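Table S2 (continued). Query chain:
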Amino acid sequence: MADTAKHIIFKGRVQGVGFRYTAHRIALRYELTGYVRNLADGSVEMFAQGHPDDIEDCLADINESFARYIRDRHITPSNPDPRCTDFTITF
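Corresponding output:
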């Protein structure tokens, strides 16, 4: 079971720039579970669970990779979901 989980909404020019695929690759490096997906309003939703430091490092890497595209992000603590056993791109 994951230590902790966070629900993140990224806003800005985050669709059509490879955001989901890069976020997926980064999350796998940190052995996180969860998902990333586009939302209808043009933002990207991410649910990440694992060790708190790994989640923070993952988010820092995503911010570094997409600093010029992310206008804002909203992070909410969440309960871990035992159904998430890997990290996926959801459509």
